[in-house]
Structure formats: structure tokens, C-alpha cells
Design goal:
single chain; Rhopdopsin 7-helix transmembrane proteins; 3 domains; 12 helices; 9 strands
């Protein structure tokens, strides 16, 4: 029997394709494309893999199951971030011990007392602990918990620091008008509960109407990404935006008080801490928006650690340094001397300020002195007002030295 064969047999991994020639019985072999396979000889076409769960390379005889990926506990980057979080927790505990053992010293008292410090340290502890919810296989519980825990604890921390900034500004401000306004504004418990309560409401509404959930991302060709889908980008942005607003207000108050007594100038360090926070989160937005895959949670962890370390170190490290290394200025006598010197200088500045004198019930003007006399003359009609105001300021300076350390500074 005579047989004619114009085409060779197609192997598995290939399919038959009819040639464009006059011999319609002839064909050529073509490799199966990506995500297709052929497991028999002379197959007329390649079979398609389920691209949601499987994949196949070019010229494949079978489909391969996609690997499930997420930020795993044994990932080198995850281990590094966990170590940094653990070091932060240890630092929080060490600071708590130092402050507890020195609770009657001026530095601890000027920080708002032990209770306020404990609340802030607890917030930092929760912020460091919240990073663990970003690592491991995503679950509905972890997806809902991680953003809520971070948002509420960080807001409480910023609210306490905001209260302290306002209190410092009130204690060291000798402008009567501004001090009256600050006294009306200063309601510590109300400030903390209101600021934190608003964030609790935001997070609660987020969890009720558009809670974060686990999402199976199959858009990549060879892997499945398990990730937390935030549910509502608007709610996520509102949570972060609200924290940013509080941090900005805190920055303004702290910036105004940056020139307070050097040894206890907490406001200056709060300003630095808020700047670190802003830089970290402004950098986070474009990186988070352009990052894809299993390392998206790592980006947020890094930003949380940077902002948390920045605020923690700027708030507590200078005080720990004074407690441990500068014990000679951590005494009541040194503290009172420093406060008296600053308050006397501040009140004297107000007494001699033309703007302050002008704020009385009339205008006080100063004429330029002659080059030979080098002295200023005041209008006679306003002499009594200027002298009375200066005398009041001197009395205030005297009273500040007696009452300020007891009433204001001891409660900062």
C-alpha cells in the first residue's frame, strides 16, 4: 500500500495548522501560546488554561497552578519591619520606666504628668503593634483592624500632643488678649475626647458602609495576590486627612512656642516631630498609588514606623537625655530660675513694646531722639497710661515668679 505524507506529526506542546498551499491536506506544527497547552500529538488546537487560577508558558503540555503571594512572615523585608516595630515597643517601655522612676522631677511634671505621658506612650505602643496586622495572610479581621487601630491610636496621640502644645503656649504667653483667647480654648479633656471621637465616628462609618475586605487579585499572569482592599478610598483618605489636619494645628501651636525656655522647650521638638510626620506621609501618597503587588502593605508599614519614631523620639528623647545626662538642670531650683528669667524677660518686652502701649485707651507715640541726647520723649498726655501699664507688667513679672511654677508649669 502506497502512502504519501506531506507533514510530520505534531508533538505535544504543539497544534496542527493548515498551510496556505494548494495541498489542503498538508499542515504545519505551531507551538501553543502562553496560557495554552497541548498534551496529545496532532491536536487541532491548544486548550486554554483557567487564567484565574492557572498559567502555562509557551509550548506547554499542562497548566500550572498560580502561586499565592502576600507579605509573608518569613519574608526578609517583613522580618526587618517587625524587628523595627519590636525595637520601637522596647523603646516605649524603657521610656515608661524612666518616667515612672522620675515622676516627681520637673522634667516629667513639665511633660503633662505621668498620666498624659502614659496615654501618649500607649498610643505609640499600639501604633507599633498595628504594623503586625499588615503582615501575614490577609483575613477580614486583620483588614478591618489594622487601619482602624492605627487611625484611632494615632489620632489620640496627636490629640494629646495638641493639648500639650496649647498648654505650653498658654503658660508662657504674656499677651493679655491672646492669653484670654487661649484660656477659653483650653479644655484638655474636651479637646482629647472630641478630636479622638471624630476619628472613631469616621472609622465606624467606614466599617459599617464600606469595610475593608480581602481581595484576590488575579491580574498578574503567574501569581495570585492576596491583599486587603480598603473598601472606600474616600473613607481611607478622610481618616488620613483628619490626622493631617490635627497634626497641622499641633504644628502651628508648637511653632508659635518654639522660642520658649531652652532647657524645657518641648514645643520646638514637637515642631520637628510634626515635620517628620508630614514629610513621611506626603512621600507615602505617590509611592502607595504606584506600588503594586505583595509589598503594598510594606509601604504603609514603613511610613507608620517613620512617623511614629519621629514623634516618639522628638517628644521623649530630649527629656530622657535631661533625666539621665543633665541631672543638674532637672531640679526645682534650676527650673524656677530658668522660668523666672524667661518670664521677666518676656514681661519686660511687653512693657516696653510700642504695640502694647498703643493697645491702651489712646495712642502713645515716640519721637526720634536727637543724636546728642540719645533719649526718647513720650507725650505728656499719655505718660500716666504708659507708667501704669509698665507698673502692671512689673507686678505681673513678680507674680509670675511666684505663681507660674506652681500653677502653670507644674501642670504642663
Amino acid at each position: 500500500q502506497i502512502q504519501s505524507k506531506c507533514s510530520k506529526e505534531c508533538s505535544p506542546e504543539q497544534m496542527k495548522k493548515t498551510t496556505r498551499s494548494q495541498h489542503i491536506c498538508c499542515y504545519e506544527c505551531e507551538n501553543c501560546p502562553e496560557n495554552h497547552y497541548s498534551n496529545q500529538t496532532d491536536m487541532p488546537h491548544c486548550l486554554l488554561c483557567n487564567n484565574k487560577t492557572h498559567w502555562a508558558p509557551v509550548r506547554s503540555t499542562m497548566c500550572f497552578e498560580k502561586e499565592v503571594e502576600y507579605l509573608n512572615w518569613n519574608d526578609s523585608l517583613a522580618i526587618l519591619l517587625l524587628i523595627l516595630s519590636l525595637l520601637g515597643i522596647i523603646f516605649v517601655l524603657v521610656v515608661g520606666i524612666i518616667f515612672t522612676r522620675n515622676l516627681n522631677t520637673p522634667v516629667v511634671k513639665s511633660s503633662g504628668g505621668l498620666r498624659v505621658c502614659y496615654v501618649i506612650l500607649l498610643c505609640h505602643f499600639l501604633n507599633f503593634a498595628s504594623t503586625s496586622f499588615f503582615i501575614g495572610e490577609p483575613q477580614d479581621f486583620t483588614c478591618k483592624t489594622r487601619q482602624t487601630l492605627f487611625g484611632v491610636s494615632f489620632t489620640l496621640c496627636i490629640s494629646c500632643i495638641l493639648m500639650k502644645s496649647l498648654k505650653i503656649l498658654l503658660a508662657f504667653n504674656f499677651d493679655p488678649k491672646l492669653q484670654k483667647f487661649l484660656k477659653c480654648l483650653y479644655k484638655p479633656i474636651l479637646i482629647i475626647f472630641t478630636c479622638t471621637g471624630i476619628q472613631v465616628v469616621i472609622c465606624t462609618l467606614w466599617l459599617i458602609f464600606a469595610a475593608p475586605t480581602v481581595e484576590v487579585n488575579v491580574s498578574l499572569p503567574r501569581v495570585i495576590i492576596l491583599e486587603c482592599e480598603e473598601g472606600s478610598i474616600l473613607a481611607f483618605g478622610t481618616m488620613l486627612g483628619y490626622i493631617a489636619i490635627l497634626a497641622f494645628i499641633c504644628f502651628i501651636f508648637a511653632f508659635k512656642g518654639r522660642k520658649l525656655p531652652e532647657n524645657y522647650n518641648e514645643a520646638k521638638f514637637i515642631t520637628f516631630g510634626m515635620l517628620i510626620y508630614f514629610i513621611a506621609w506626603i512621600t507615602f501618597i505617590p509611592i502607595y498609588a504606584t506600588t503594586f503587588g505583595k509589598y503594598v502593605p510594606a509601604v504603609e508599614i514603613i511610613v507608620i514606623l517613620i512617623s511614629n519614631y519621629g514623634i516618639l523620639c522628638c517628644t521623649f528623647f530630649p527629656k530622657c537625655y535631661v533625666i539621665i545626662c543633665k541631672q543638674e538642670i532637672n531640679t526645682k531650683s534650676a527650673f524656677l530660675k530658668m522660668i523666672y528669667s524667661y518670664s521677666s524677660h518676656s514681661v519686660s518686652s511687653i512693657a516696653m513694646s510700642p504695640a502694647s502701649l498703643d493697645s491702651m485707651n489712646g495712642n502713645v507715640t515716640m519721637t526720634n531722639p536727637s543724636s546728642s541726647g540719645k533719649s526718647a520723649t513720650w507725650q505728656k498726655s499719655k505718660d500716666l497710661q504708659a507708667q501704669a501699664f509698665a507698673q502692671t507688667c512689673r507686678e505681673n513679672a513678680t507674680s509670675v515668679s511666684k505663681t507660674l511654677p506652681r500653677k502653670r508649669i507644674s501642670s504642663i
